[in-house]
């Protein structure tokens, strides 16, 4: 068996069992629940596992990754359930426990984060450890989208991160994160110019060693108005700017709660990893 999807909740001990009994497993998708009181698990090596997707339905800690070695992992997705739980995984400053997790992710080509609570600074620190990453999907609370976009803006090989990034997707949930509720009306957490500055800096492979963006997706969720974000400006810029003409840009606004729920439950190996 090379592919396995488990659609009901399990504890991380199940991953130990899978690792020991499925030596040629290449792709794994699993729901995990809170197992912080479990006894320490014996080490296990997933020798050929390339794709791993974990959906978390309650609290889940970096400690749960300690038993595992993933020498060839290239695609990783971590998602919390947006309906029945708060963001469950604890992204804390780098510690020895986190060091092990980040070591597991060091060769990633694709990273997808759904409904995570992670600051933009913490996420940027994680991304600095992933120099081979080509696909980045972020659907998470970041505290500052401006800081995140600025951190992704390519300036030089010495100062910038993700030189091989070609596909970038950003989901912004204004009801949950980033929406500033002023007395008069809310403001959008970043402007068209903030977004376009980052994309333009990575638009064309003019700099040696930089892949250049090929696909960009921006989704604004659960909001009726996009204050401060001019959708027409972004769309026109992508159509008319010569440095953006080779980028496939898609913009989606205000999916319903049902669509957000459906997207989470449709996260199969085929359409997420």
Describe this structure in words.
With 273 residues, this protein is an alpha/beta fold. The protein has a single domain (3-265), classed as Alpha-Beta Horseshoe (Leucine-rich repeat, LRR (right-handed beta-alpha superhelix)), CATH 3.80.10. Helices cover 23% and strands 24% of the residues. The protein has seven helices and eleven strands. Strand 7, helix 3 (120-127) and strand 8 form a beta-alpha-beta unit. Helix 3 runs parallel beside helix 4 and helix 4 (145-152) packs parallel to helix 5.
Task: Give the helix tally.
Answer: 7
Largest sheet data: 9 strands, parallel
Strand arrangement in the largest pleated sheet? 1-2-4-6-7-8-9-10-11
Radius of gyration: 19 Å
CATH architecture: Alpha-Beta Horseshoe
Question: Poorly predicted ranges (pLDDT <50, ≥5 residues)?
Answer: 176-186, 267-273
Q: What do we call the CATH topology?
A: Leucine-rich repeat, LRR (right-handed beta-alpha superhelix)
**Global mean pLDDT:** 77
According to DSSP, the number of beta strands is 11
